[in-house]
TrEMBL record:
One matching Pfam family: Polysacc_lyase_14
Domain of life: Bacteria
Signal peptide (UniProt feature, chain positions): 1-27
Domain Polysaccharide lyase: 315-476
UniProt entry tagged with the keyword Signal: yes
Keywords: Signal
Organism: Roseateles oligotrophus
Alphabetized Gene3D superfamilies for the sequence: 2.60.120.200
Name of protein: Polysaccharide lyase 14 domain-containing protein
Keyword Signal belongs to the record: yes
């Protein structure tokens, strides 16, 4: 009763003083632009670091009628065969108008064959920005209001070909024809209203097939252009999470403020390299609400943290579904160039299966941890960025290692160094023997993952055993250098938690 009263009092206080939520929605993750490097777009993914998948293999676009994957181009151009090197020009002003009207659409041109050209196997090769012939590279001619002109080369260009699993952005050519798409990104003036018209100039040395092909322009529409509105939860009425511990739906909280913070987890399961801190200038640490847990994976080692909250050890029933939220900040030195790894999540391994190549059989265990993807050192488009995923051990996984679910829905799980993020995960176990388990994830209150149809168990003797604060490099490959992150404001609950109020620093 006393706990419920404290919760109501804190909630009323928050409403009375009018604290504003720090939730924000955006069309694209902070610092992220589609590139053409090693983790650039492929047939399957708009970002290979995660991976973050297209909704449809071969890429996502909208046509001039606003139809996803429609066939009404904004403009067209014809490319004839056998005329030496044709220089062709396409009026992109209609596409420019769409960008002006829909700010969430990225400024990326999609070129595809249309009409009879799209039905065949004909191919046109245009010179890319990597072409050795500088005069043949793509060029965007922009006319501004008032008559001044700009000539822009692509900031990135690539093509999607479903016969390849790799990014093709470093090729000297751009291929279109059949189901292939060409993608070109230009860095336009920030105020698009200043632009009067735009025209794309391309050149081609090689054309295969019909005597002429028609190429149409479309607008790119990746998943992050449909960002979900941030969702508020239990924490919206609890400034700095104060009072959450008294809410009847909250099972556990930890802020790492007290010297005996480890004892709150109930058992000395901590291994690795972790400590409660209030300052770390070298790592670029900025306090969220006081102290936080600093976790480091040392060079040549794998483990940074292995800390668990087991429900049975605290006299609590093991739940069938659960929300788990924590705040995460990657330090200055965070650069997982060697391999990806594991982050905190939810599990029921019971010491038998569901991790470490121990495949679930429906009766021995399961897990859904978070994870981070490898950040290739040779791709400057993702410098300081990390792609987050869910790493799940479930009965129907294809091999002994877990399944990876990229956080690519809405405002995607691409996180930047030196910024606090609210990370929340949800697991609902399946009814024994059925494929109706669910995994969800949110970043800063925006949903980034919805994965259903999962089978974790074939017996009700398996439940949610624990929340697992796991930070691990690999696989088996050790960290190539020190990698540091910070964790704060852990909350475990029966209901959606969401971001807290009045975040002091990002």
């Amino acid at each position: 009763m006393a706990g419920s009263f404290r919760w109501v009092a804190v909630r009323c206080l928050a409403l009375l003083i009018g604290l504003a939520s720090t939730l924000s929605a955006g069309a694209m993750p902070e610092g992220f632009e589609l590139g053409d490097g090693s983790v650039g777009p492929t047939c399957a993914n708009y970002l290979g670091m995660g991976p973050m998948a297209w909704r449809q293999r071969g890429g996502d676009w909208v046509d001039a009628k606003g139809q996803p994957h429609g066939q009404r181009p904004f403009s067209t151009m014809d490319v004839a065969r056998g005329q030496g090197r044709p220089f062709v020009e396409m009026d992109l002003t209609p596409l420019l108008r769409a960008w002006q009207a829909q700010p969430r659409l990225p400024h990326i041109v999609v070129l595809r064959s249309v009409g009879q050209s799209a039905a065949g196997s004909d191919v046109i090769e245009f010179h890319s920005r990597e072409s050795s012939d500088i005069t043949a590279r793509p060029l965007l001619k922009v006319t501004l209001k008032g008559g001044s002109r700009l000539r822009l080369t692509p900031a990135a260009d690539t093509f999607l070909d479903c016969s390849s699993l790799s990014s093709l952005g470093r090729r000297a050519e751009l291929k279109t024809g059949g189901d292939r798409s060409v993608l070109l990104r230009f860095e336009l003036p920030k105020n698009l209203a200043e632009i009067e018209s735009a025209a794309l100039l391309l050149s081609s040395d090689k054309q295969y097939g019909a005597s002429a092909q028609t190429i149409g322009s479309f607008a790119l529409k990746p998943a992050f252009s449909e960002a979900h509105e941030p969702r508020q939860g239990l924490a919206a009425a609890a400034p700095a999470d104060r009072g959450l511990e008294g809410h009847p739906d909250v099972l556990f909280t930890a802020g790492f403020e007290e010297s005996a913070w480890l004892a709150r987890f109930g058992e000395l399961t901590l291994r690795g390299d972790a400590e409660s801190i209030d300052a770390d200038k070298a790592g670029g640490f900025v306090s969220l609400f006081g102290r936080a847990l600093k976790v480091t994976m040392r060079r040549g080692k794998n483990l940074g943290l292995d800390l668990r909250y087991r429900f049975a050890r605290h006299g609590q029933a093991e739940p069938q579904e659960l929300y788990f939220r924590y705040y995460l900040r990657f330090a200055k030195d965070w650069n997982p160039s060697g391999d990806g790894g594991k982050l905190p999540g939810i599990a029921g391994t019971y010491g038998k299966a569901g991790w470490g190549m121990r495949k679930p059989d429906g009766f021995n265990g399961w897990s859904v941890r978070g994870g981070f993807a490898r950040r290739p050192a040779d791709d400057p488009t993702v410098t300081r960025l990390s792609g987050l995923v869910s790493y799940a051990y479930h009965v129907d996984q294809s091999d002994n290692s877990g399944a990876v679910f990229g956080w690519g829905e809405g405002l995607s799980g691409v996180l930047s160094n030196e910024r606090w993020y609210c990370v929340e995960q949800f697991v609902r176990l399946n009814d024994p023997g059925q494929r109706n388990g669910i995994v969800r994830a949110w970043v800063d209150g925006s949903q980034v993952l919805e994965q259903g149809g999962l089978r974790f168990r074939d017996t009700d003797k398996l439940a949610i055993e624990e929340v697992w604060l796991d930070v691990y490099h690999g696989g088996v490959a050790p960290a190539p250098h020190d990698l540091t992150l910070y964790i704060d404001n852990v909350v475990i609950a029966r209901r959606y938690i969401g971001p807290t109020m009045a975040v002091s620093a990002h």
